[in-house]
Amino acid sequence: MPGSGVRRDTARSSGAPRGPSPTFLPASRLNVASVVLACFSTGLAAQGPASTGGIVPLTSEPSHHLALTTDYVRVFDVTAAPHATTLIHRHDHDYLFVTLGDADITSARTDAPPRQLVIPDGAIEYAAGGFAHSVANNLDRPFHNITIELLRPSSHVATCTDGCGLPEACAAGTSCATVTRSITSDEWVAYTIGLPPGATWVADSDWTPGLVVVVSESDLKLRGEYESTAASHRSPGNLIWLPARHGRRALAGGAFMQAITPAITNIGTREAKIVVIEWRKARG
Question: What is the pTM (predicted TM-score) of this model?
């Protein structure tokens, strides 16, 4: 879809109609996100009680593997063994998490009764930090997720419940990407994007920093200043950090080149699914 891209709660630059205003559910009313979330163990005894042992920091929980650190986020690749229970660990930062495969878990916070949660593949959820819990994987298969700690404050967080699709423009005879606004705040927006074979997602020309989480087995072609590191095949949980597009980039000898707007094309034969988190304001 050349010429289109993720927008921040506005109509597309292509001039496509915006449609009905989206409906958002405030974060304070989210049931799943308030209790979950995304913290599991591969090396712990099965179904250990949440009340045993001390509380460990997130970085010391054995199932959490630090995968990416920027000024905006710390990202953990998390895998839970079948029927394993994590250590009790603390979430000091607000965070998002993306499920990679269907999940059935029990979250046991230190300040609330345990709660079982069934979460579908590719779901993205938000949780405010400042609590500790353990999490049990109730399934006979591993649970995989990406946990994204938000290192900067988030305000007015809400999940979109109605009118969340964004109009996408694409060339005649080509497949169009589908972009769905999932969760918003004053500082960032999280989208779920579907890419049929041949479809392209193009970021805005004033793109601010962003994170892409690959949800499905995909063959993707990347465009932008990071494309030299791009492998075509990407598995669920693969991460792509997209730097801000600043208009021009200095070259040797005092020359300049126009910055390249990020874009992702599905070059495979099956639909690709990704999650994109876009920060609203570049701050250096």
Answer: 0.78
